[in-house]
Backbone:
C-alpha cells in the first residue's frame, strides 16, 4: 500500500519543479506579448502592397480573359462573306460580257469548318483549367505569404524583446568595469580582476551592438513584405 503513495509524492514533486522552472514563465510571457490582431494587420497590408501577389492577381485576370475569348470563339468555324459587283463602267469590278447580268449587285457566301468546331470544347476546357491553375497558384502564394509574415514578425518580436535585457546587461557590465577600473588604479584589485571586468564589458558591448543590428534587420525584413513602415501600421 505504501508504493502508490510514494509514487504520488514523486509525481507531485516533479510537477512542482516543472512549475518552478524560470524558462517556462519566461516563455509564457513572450507568447502573451504577441498580438494576433497586429499580425492580421501585417498580413492584410502585405497582401495589399506586396508586388509579387499582384503578379498572381494579374495572372488570374489574364486566364479569365483567355477563357472569355475561348467561349466567344465558338463563332470562328462559321464565316459569312458578301461582295458587291456592278455593271457600271466606272466600277473597279469590271464584269465580263457573259457574267455581267448574272454577277451584278450583292453576292453572299457562307462557309463552315467542322474541324475547327470540334476543337472548341477542348480549347474552352483548357482555358477553364488555366483559370483554376492561376487561382491555385494565387491561393498557395497567399498561404506562403501569410506564413512568411508571421515568421518574420516572430523574429522581429524576439529581437525587440531581447533589446532590454541585453542593454541592461551592458549597463551593468559598464558600471562594474568603471568601478573595477577605479579600484585597480588604487591598487585595490588585481590585474586579473581588472581584465575580467574589461572583457565582460567588451563582450556586453558587442552583444548590445549585435542585438541592435538583429532588431533593425528583422524590422527591415518584415517591412519588405508590408511595403510600409511598421510605425504606419496601427
Residues:
Amino acid at each position: 500500500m505504501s508504493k502508490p503513495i510514494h509514487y504520488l509524492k514523486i509525481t507531485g514533486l516533479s510537477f512542482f519543479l516543472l512549475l518552478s522552472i524560470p524558462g517556462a514563465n519566461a516563455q509564457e510571457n513572450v507568447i502573451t506579448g504577441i498580438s494576433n490582431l497586429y499580425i492580421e494587420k501585417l498580413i492584410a497590408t502585405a497582401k495589399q502592397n506586396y508586388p509579387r501577389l499582384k503578379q498572381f492577381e494579374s495572372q488570374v485576370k489574364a486566364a479569365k480573359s483567355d477563357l472569355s475569348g475561348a467561349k466567344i470563339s465558338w463563332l470562328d468555324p462559321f464565316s459569312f462573306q458578301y461582295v458587291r459587283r456592278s455593271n457600271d463602267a466606272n466600277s473597279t469590278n469590271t464584269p465580263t460580257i457573259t457574267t455581267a447580268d448574272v454577277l451584278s449587285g450583292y453576292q453572299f457566301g457562307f462557309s463552315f469548318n467542322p474541324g475547327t468546331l470540334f476543337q472548341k470544347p477542348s480549347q474552352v476546357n483548357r482555358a477553364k483549367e488555366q483559370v483554376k491553375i492561376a487561382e491555385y497558384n494565387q491561393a498557395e502564394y497567399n498561404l506562403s505569404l501569410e506564413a512568411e509574415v508571421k515568421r518574420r514578425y516572430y523574429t522581429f518580436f524576439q529581437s525587440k524583446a531581447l533589446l532590454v535585457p541585453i542593454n541592461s546587461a551592458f549597463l551593468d557590465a559598464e558600471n562594474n568595469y568603471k568601478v573595477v577600473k577605479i579600484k585597480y588604479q588604487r591598487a585595490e584589485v588585481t590585474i586579473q580582476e581588472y581584465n575580467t571586468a574589461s572583457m565582460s564589458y567588451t563582450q556586453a558591448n558587442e552583444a548590445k551592438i549585435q542585438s541592435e543590428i538583429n532588431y533593425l534587420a528583422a524590422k527591415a525584413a518584415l517591412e519588405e513584405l508590408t511595403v510600409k513602415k511598421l510605425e504606419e501600421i496601427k
In short: The radius of gyration is 39 Å. The mean pLDDT is 75.
